[in-house]
Amino acid sequence: MLLWNRHTCALAASGLLFLAAPAALADGPYHYIKEIPVGTDGGWDYLSIDPAAHRLYVAHGNQVVVIDTATDTVSGTIADTPGVHGLAVAPQLNRGFVSDGRANKVSIVDLASLKPVGEAATGTNPDCIIFEPGRNEVYAFNGRSQSATVIGADSGKVVTTIPLPGKPEFAQADPAAGRVYDNLEDKSVVVAIDTRTHAVVAQWPVAPGEGPSGLALDAAHHRLFVGCDSVMVVLDSATGKVVGSVPVGEGVDAAAFDPGTGFAFTSNGESGTVTVVHEDSPDQFTVVQTLPTEKSARTMQVDPASHKIYLASAKFEAPAAPPAGGGRPPRPKMIPGSFKILVYGLAPGA
Questions:
Q1: Among 19, 97, 294, 331, which is most buried by a count of CB atoms within 10 Å?
Q2: Distances from the Cα of 24 to the Cαs of 134, 292, 300, in angstroms?
Q3: What are the backbone dihedrals phi and psi of residue 93, each rounded to the nearest 5 degrees, phi first?
Q4: Residues near 5 by beta carbon (within 8 Å), at least 6 away in sequence
Q5: Phi (first) and psi of residue 63, to 5 degrees
């Protein structure tokens, strides 16, 4: 395990010890390395990593951009993925499963050729998508129909559809526990799904957090890191008990955990930061760095092999004035050709 020396102040809460560094802490284990120009236009969503293949997959516009993480350069694209949200990797099959939000389907892709080999129908607006290796299945979480479509990774056929009691956001699989966990953003709960019965078996509130978005898992210590509005909440993944919380930046989107360093992360798009939290023990957590990034850098992935942080970002035009009659101003337009991937790594000696 890599170590980081921390100078912190102690806070007592709920009988357990939680540590937090100053909110503006910029010095720490991570530093900026480079940006990877992508240049194509359109919005973006999830990033997924295949450490063994040295690939980062970036959902962008109507395609998936493939980054070679050995060289940190663009190496290819997966085309014709309308309204793509994410890609799940089934490594032993060398297949990718792409959630095509606008087409209400999952595209199945051969990752050697980056060409489609099949598709499966889903619910409305499949968003987050993950591979569950325990039963060799793919879970596509349907944002508008509040369900999860389960697909056999070998067959490419729909196994079942699981109704959910709210709007799903990001998910994690724990094959050893036989569970898939998912945030329900509108209910401020995490649900646990039994992978054998394909049924929701638990609902766990994330208070003091609200609106959970990002979700990361430390499977070895049974900890879920839930990225909520300005706070990371830590749950026991076996019982659902809240075992800790630490302040993070505003506009949390993604969360990640690196078992090699013990660091958990949230990407905070509104603050333009990544909050780096160290898991000192399964019940003690320390904010060690508030890493400056960019205001639009909201989606994130961490490579457990290199320990690098990857964030998607772009430049935007100046915000327009609010309408004369009141109300919200229109969203700023993305500057054409400005889309990129920001790369951060551990400082020497960290």
A1: 97
A2: 41, 9, 20
A3: -100, -10
A4: none
A5: -150, 170
Give dist(CA 344, CA 349) in Å, integer. 15
Q: Which domains does the chain have, with CATH numbers?
A: 1-37+206-317+333-350 (2.130.10.10), 45-198 (2.130.10.10)
Q: How many residues does the chain have?
A: 350
CA–CA gap between residue 18 and residue 143 (Å, rounded):
34
Contact 87, 95 (CB under 8 A): no
Place of tokens 């080999």: 117
With 0.85 as the threshold, say if the pTM is over it.
Answer: yes
SS3 of residue 91 by DSSP: helix
Q: What angle do CA 20, 10, 286 make, to 5 degrees?
A: 35
- CA torsion sign for 88, 269, 250, 289 is positive
- How would you write the pLDDT of the chain (350 residues) with one tens digit per residue? 333 333 333 233 333 333 333 334 568 999 999 999 998 888 899 999 999 999 999 999 999 999 999 999 999 999 999 999 999 999 999 999 999 999 999 999 999 999 999 999 999 999 999 999 999 999 999 999 999 999 999 999 999 999 999 999 999 999 999 999 999 999 999 999 999 999 999 999 999 999 999 999 999 999 999 999 899 999 999 999 999 999 999 999 999 999 999 999 999 999 999 999 999 999 999 999 999 999 999 999 999 999 999 999 999 888 778 777 777 777 788 888 889 999 999 988 77
If one counts every other C-beta atom within 10 angstroms of the C-beta of residue 200, the result is 18
